[in-house]
Specification:
about 80 residues, about 75% helix
Amino acid sequence: MLGVAAFVFVYYTTWALLLPFVSPDSGLHDAFPPREWATRGPALLLLLGLAGIGAFFAKVSAAEARKKAQAGKKV
């Protein structure tokens, strides 16, 4: 996992920070997606992560509300 994380870090750093200083004629540009995805990708991942956290919170809250409602009926 550490190797994968290191690879992703080096790849993204090269893509987002170093690639603008390399000549567009270089073959290095072929190894990377278009530069606008350097900001769109992490933004989409952030939105998906926040949506997942929100869905988990809603599911847990609904389950707790159901438990309280069932406990109230039994008394």
